[in-house]
Amino acid sequence: MKALRYTGPATMEWVDTADAAVQEPTDALVRVDATTICGTDLHILNGDVPSVDHGRVLGHEAVGTVVDVGAAVSAVAAGDRVLVSCITSCGRCRFCREAAYGQCVGGGGWILGNRVDGTQAELVRVPFADTSTHLLPAGLSTESALMLSDILPTAFEVGVLNGAVAPGDTVAVVGAGPIGLAAIATARLFSPGAIIAIDPAAPRRDAAKRFGADLVVDTTTDPTSVVMARTDGLGADVVIEAVGVPAAFELCADLVRPGGHLANVGVHGSPAALHLERLWNRNITITTGLVDTYSTPRLLAMLAAGHLDGAQFITHRFDLDDIEHAYEVFSRPMDSGALKIALHRRG
């Protein structure tokens, strides 16, 4: 099979490799019909994720068709069309029993494209298939379902739910990339009073408007003054960090009101300053998190009912064989306008 292997910081190669296969009774072997590229994959290429070994097949998002299953698998069978979750769940450990699947200590968590070979390949082995795949309704498009592998549950759980968005809230989203846009789309489910999107790129600010932001702000204009003017000097009730760089986190801390919530979603590869000398007496709740994907069935139901549209995130489409070029496009969003890229199996 062909697969994209990580060969060290800033390097990767689309190469022939041994076919993935069932190794454990709880495994499923899935033919990858569509996959995508995540900002976390770029963090891996930047050297920010040292747990990823050289030679690892990248990718943790896919929609595909089950080819084979281990003897212990009962929830899916060969021929089934499934969503492969970015988080693998053993279903038995303490954390999985608490629906904190991202913290699984029974062999799961974020392992695809990290500690085991991932989805940017023609075939992928999915451990703990009964609890780590989701059967897809016949009428749901592949591209819409693909966004449920990671960005929609990540933004919803780590941003919107951790941030405790409530009706009437002013929500500021720093970063209007795919995660920020998913946070905007899912925050709207809670009828906030206003959503303010902050991003330096005009195409992404335009996208934020399409996804439901009430106000968009260029980072060159002093976003803090804009948010304070909109909130009578108090600050936003909920601020969602969706970038993963120190300046974005520090801006979020300036935007949140006393008693508000700062929900960090971005993957950080370097330290950010936490100015407790300014924050200690403001009753602020700061949350971080890796997605657990406990919300995936609920989001899947909303997609199937037409209440969310996953396909609207996709700006570029390529054959899976063109994945190296797709990475180039995805890594230059300021120039390419890329949000999410769908990579489809040829034929």
From TrEMBL:
It comes from the Bacteria. InterPro entries: ADH-like_C (IPR013149), ADH-like_N (IPR013154), ADH_Zn_CS (IPR002328), ER (IPR020843), GroES-like_sf (IPR011032), NAD(P)-bd_dom_sf (IPR036291). Residues 8-343 form the Enoyl reductase (ER) domain. The keyword Lyase does not apply. It holds the Pfam family ADH_N. SUPFAM superfamilies: GroES-like, NAD(P)-binding Rossmann-fold domains. Keywords: Metal-binding, Oxidoreductase, Zinc. GO terms for molecular function: oxidoreductase activity; zinc ion binding. Its cofactor is Zn(2+). Belongs to the zinc-containing alcohol dehydrogenase family. This is Alcohol dehydrogenase. It comes from Actinokineospora fastidiosa.
